[in-house]
Amino acid sequence: MGLEDILDQMVCIWNQGLFFEVHEHLEGIWQVSAGAKKQALQGMIKAAGVYVHLEYHHRLAANRLAAGAVDLLERHRDHLSFIANIDEFIDDLKTGNPEPTVLLLIEKK
After folding, report:
1. Domain assignment of residue 106, yes or no
2. Model-level pTM?
């Protein structure tokens, strides 16, 4: 299974609201990644953590993770080009939207 398939699966897991599972799903590829790709994956892992904390009403922890996620996602968005609505996703994290963005995949040719 290629990286593209793993990332497509991550989007499906995210859209099911399984944020702890998103973290677990990405952890393995994050550990063997390097550079900007690793930073982009870390941003996604932190974003998932935002919603795990919100499930437990830990707003302060969620806000801290969101700030870190936004920083990483903005700097390394080119490695997340498979997400069609990456700007909306980042904006929702910035504004503290408690409803997670439904991630949309770029249509493959």
Report:
1. no
2. 0.94
